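Problem statement: downstream parser choked on a complex file, so we are re-checking the raw output for the copper (II) ion run. The parser issue turned out to be on our end (a line-ending mismatch), but while we're here, posting the original submission so the record is complete.
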Amino acid sequence: MNAIMLLSAACARMQEMERKLTIAMAAAIFSTTVSAQTIPTEGQVTKIDQGQNNVTLKHEPIKNLDMDGMTMVFVVANPAMLKAVKVGDKVKFEADRVNGRLTVTKIEKA
Ligand SMILES: [Cu+2]
């Protein structure tokens, strides 16, 4: 929501600028905002799949992804993350969309 409002405000101020420049700047503002907005979320590990490099988490609402609480599979950004937790652990994690896939970017025991 904030990103969209920022973008509209920024775009209004840049109306006289070249179209290409506007798009480039908007993209820069957008990506900065998204990565800065990752919010720690509570969850519980219900499954770990080392081979597929993913973890199933029963998670609380993820505000930065606009997602309700549910149980779902996430790819992990780094395979070592799967060694730091085990099934049944309550965890605090951060998730983001990386190359179009919902990815855990940080995870630790709660
Ligand atoms: Cu989910």
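For whoever reads this later: The helical segments are 2-13, 19-36.
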